[in-house]
From TrEMBL:
Major subcellular location class: membrane
A Pfam family this chain is assigned to: MFS_1
Transmembrane segments: 41-64, 71-94, 100-127, 139-158, 164-186, 216-241, 253-273, 280-299, 305-321, 342-362, 377-398
Taxonomy, superkingdom: Bacteria
CDD domains (alphabetical): MFS_MefA_like (cd06173)
Record membrane topology: Multi-pass membrane protein
MF-aspect GO terms: transmembrane transporter activity
Keywords annotated in UniProt: Cell membrane, Membrane, Transmembrane, Transmembrane helix
One of the record's GO cellular component terms: plasma membrane
Subcellular location: Cell membrane
SUPFAM superfamilies the record matches: MFS general substrate transporter (SSF103473)
The protein, known as: MFS transporter
Limits of the Major facilitator superfamily (MFS) profile domain: 1-403
């Protein structure tokens, strides 16, 4: 089994593992909040997950390019299963406290830093270039299906099965991922002979590769900017919904479910369509249209209107990400995709924690204190969403970015620039 047929089996295993992980995350969120009654606990869970994910990405990318991608993915999936097994053991012993949750959150973040570049590089090796965007759409679909289905399933099963049952289902998903990986052949790139370099040298190689190619650097700076602007809005969106609906959990659930469904629809659209022939159109217009929906959420009232716009905002994200992924897969040699993709993600994702640090004080002390909590946050959505529209369209004014696909040659399968 090879090509897209092998990818479908791999996708199924990864989708089941993702569903299990998301169910565990949802259940742990409820457990941690019930245990402490503090929102800070939840924010710390996210922080401990995100920090190693960013900091370890370059080193993880170097590791992915030194060893078979299948090994890296197996290590990440097995590690995630062991982490869940550790939580299950503590739960059965009656010793599951908040402290171990932070530890496991950090561990899963570190494993995610390894898994993503390994998976991205593996798909490049398994598939023809014409299938890159379609495969990316299917991966976005898996993420969106987990985003929609995991909270519903976890909420429905938590009472009859308990937290231990959710952990057990997560272990089943991890087992499915490992089993599918063992069955699927993943080609390893042919590396040209070169001197051995240090881990630091290999980790920095991804950044040098991007800096030496202005079109790729420009694309990644576009993503840094859009991540900064949209995260400034999306971080405080739940607070706006709750403030304007009298703390209605149902309203917030409606908006989040609609966003998940939009991601599912966008993933299906890209899987069937494959994206625009000129990929940068998918990037720039995806940024602009998604940001427009975010901006309009600040201008309308009511859960139904917010849900429609949340659906539309998420609808364009798979097209945006899939189009960008297809460009990078075509332009970066297989042998160094692990390092380059890890550096690429670190550049773009550095904006997220910065935006998260700014969004809360802006909502509480600047916009909220002047206009009220709900209306102040709505103004933030309108402002930063509108800036996101302008940012996305500004890509058409930058020739190096607009013509990235023609300015950069496609990478050859056996091409491997020396670190």
């Amino acid at each position: 089994m090879r090509g897209f047929a092998a990818f479908r089996l791999l996708w199924l295993g990864q989708a089941l593992a993702l569903l299990g992980r998301e169910m565990t995350w949802f259940a742990l969120t409820l457990y941690a909040y019930q245990k402490t009654g503090q929102a800070t606990t939840l924010s710390l869970l996210g922080f401990f997950h995100f920090l190693p994910l960013i900091l370890l990405s370059p080193l993880a990318g170097a590791l992915v390019d030194r060893y078979p991608r299948k090994w890296a993915m197996l290590a990440a999936d097995l590690g995630g299963g062991l982490a869940t097994g550790f939580l299950l053991l503590l739960y059965l012993l009656g010793r599951l406290e908040v402290g171990p949750l932070y530890l496991v959150s950090a561990l899963t973040g570190a494993l995610s830093s390894l898994h993503w570049p390994a998976l991205s590089a593996a798909l490049s090796a398994m598939l023809e270039k014409r299938d890159y965007a379609r495969a990316s759409g299917m991966m976005s679909l898996a993420e969106s299906l987990a985003g929609v289905g995991a909270p519903i399933l976890a909420a429905a099963l938590l009472k009859p099965l308990g937290l231990g049952g959710i952990f057990a289902l997560d272990l089943v998903g991890a087992g499915a991922a490992v089993f599918s990986l063992l069955l699927v052949p993943i080609p390893n790139p042919r590396l040209e002979a070169r001197e051995k370099t240090s881990w630091i040298g290999e980790a920095l190689f991804g950044f040098r590769f991007i800096l030496e190619r202005p079109p790729l650097l420009g694309l990644q700076l576009m993503f840094f900017g859009i991540n900064l602007l949209t995260t400034l809005g999306s971080t405080v969106l739940p607070a706006m919904v709750l403030a304007k609906t009298g703390m209605s959990e149902a309203a917030l659930a409606l908006v989040r479910s609609a966003a998940g469904l939009g991601g599912v629809a966008g993933g299906l659209l890209l899987s069937l369509w494959g994206g625009p022939r000129k990929r940068v159109h998918g990037v720039f217009l995806g940024m602009a249209l998604s940001s427009l929906a975010l901006a309009l959420m600040g201008a309308v009232e009511g859960p139904s209107a917010w849900a429609v716009l949340a659906f539309l905002e998420s609808l364009f994200i798979p097209v945006l990400n899939g189009s960008n992924q297809a460009i990078w897969q075509a332009k970066v040699p297989l042998a160094v995709q692990g390092k380059v993709f890890a550096a690429r993600r670190m550049i773009a994702w550095c904006a997220n924690p910065l935006a998260m640090l700014l969004a809360g004080p802006l909502a509480d002390r600047v916009f909220g204190s002047r206009y009220g909590q709900g209306e102040g946050i709505a103004l933030m959505l309108l402002l930063f969403g509108s800036l996101g529209v302008l940012w996305g369209l500004s890509g058409y004014l930058l020739p190096q970015v607009r013509e990235a696909e023609s300015l950069l040659p496609d990478a050859k399968e056996d091409q491997a620039p020396a670190p």
